[in-house]
Amino acid sequence: MRWILLSMGVASLLLLAGEISKTAELKPPPSSPKLLALGKQIYSQQCAACHGMQGQGDGEAAYLLYPKPRNLVAANYRLVSTWERVPADQDLFNTITRGMPGSAMPSWGHLPEEQRWALVYYVKSLAEKPIIVKPQKKPGPEGSGGEGVIQPPPELPYNAAAKLRALELFREACASCHGATGKGDGVQEQVDEEGYPTRPRDLTTGVFKGSPDPIQLYRRIVAGIPGSPMPMSDWAHGDDAWHLVHYVRSLSSDKQRERAEMKKFGIVATRVKELPDHPDSGIWRLTPPVNLHLMPLWWRSDRPEELTVRAVHNGKELALQVVWTDETHDHTAMRPQDFRDAAAVQFSLSKDPPFFAMGEKGKSVNIWMWKSERQAEIEMPFHDLEIVYPNLGIDSYPNLLRSPVEQPTRQALTLDSDPAFITGWGAGNIVSDPQRKGPAEDLTAQGFGTLKARPVVDQKVDAKGVYAAGSYRVMFRRSLQATGKAAVALRPGTTVPVAFAVWNGSAGDRDGKKSVTIWQDLRIAK
Q1: Residue 251: what are its φ and ψ, rounded to 5°?
Q2: I need a surface site. Which of 160, 188, 311, 411 has the fewest CB within 10 A?
Q3: What number of other Cβ atoms are within 10 A of residue 116's Cβ?
Q4: Which among 261, 319, 263, 258 has a CA at the least distance from the CA of 519?
Q5: Would you state the pLDDT for residue 270?
Q6: CA of 298: how far to CAs of 66, 108, 261, in Å?
Q7: Each residue's pLDDT tens digit, 61-74
Q8: pTM
Q9: What domains does the chain contain, in order, with CATH numbers?
């Protein structure tokens, strides 16, 4: 019980810290060469993979992402709170802290405050033109002529009269794009300033690119979203903007908005006498579940929002259970248009983890991956391609010492007895090995394009998945002791950075197209 309370306490503190850092107007430290150098270091490690080393939005992961990473040199930012429609330092700090739901920009709220401010100053230094916010100046009666950060008047109560006014304003100014009920079903054929297609936000899902905090939302309504079809609404400054804020927030719940944000949690691997041998074992009830927030790297609305994780160990082995919803059971990948469901657990080999997506050069990550079609092949052999399509491949190996009538042929079904006839298997590729007994793969990577299987002798990860009632439950097991190079070492009393990913085959997920979490803390209880 004390581990349950500890886990809940840690999670609550992290959530509270995230809410405070998200909404508070913090006094920033002054920029300095030291902070700029720190910002450059963090940027190279955590940001360059998407935004590019020079900040031009052309990082090596950019082709996997939608919306595309921001070009920090052009510095045309979306989330602004000023009359000039340029970001204040606090805007950049808030975006780095919270991330940008609706895109692949994760939250970096777990970084120390000094590091986040260092990133603010370094990102600003990449802009080709200085980002200047003018001194405060109040706008005129109709909202024009203001300068500096937009300062909302006192918030009004949202009573019946305010709601009627909000509905009128929404119909007149917002419904043509966002739809009469806010579902984003208005004008669909829209493009941003760079010509990329964009769609109006479905306001009922709770996915806000910027903070849904009322003051921040007020400023976004008045300033609009530069570079997008959402215009500035300076005419609304005052009571009308508050009415719209309250109405837009009423279209979604706090719970919906919370699920859209990436947060860092603590996962406790509880010590038990006996490890579970099945994803549905009752032993999992002995450890608290932790709900992690997922984000698709190629954003879509029909996404898995959460991944529930449990962890236990018995002093010798660790077992992890991951659960997520998926409306389709995609367990075959025979045709070119078919993709399978999958799940993976990623471990950092160092306390200071590398970039959360596949690690980085010189800093390996260890990945345990479960594939649905591999499990189906093991449990139901008729899914095997060569059985579904008999005589798919017939190979002939001429022997000059025999007559043409006596020439031997090898039918595809007989090839799994000899790796000499399957080059991938013969080269040690575990994906090509038809004799594998389990659906798990033990992998390693040092950045994009470097993923590879660990040696066959070190393939010690066991996994099993169950699909029922529109959800997957997958269990991973491995010895705490690492074998071979690039394997994570797990010891009671230690904390290991861990991240998760899931693939939805029916949504076209494969390789780098997936939904992921940011780094979490896995604490292995003594």
Answers
A1: -80, -10
A2: 160
A3: 22
A4: 263
A5: 98
A6: 5, 19, 16
A7: 999 898 999 999 99
A8: 0.85
A9: 28-259 (1.10.760.10), 266-392+423-524 (2.60.40.1190)
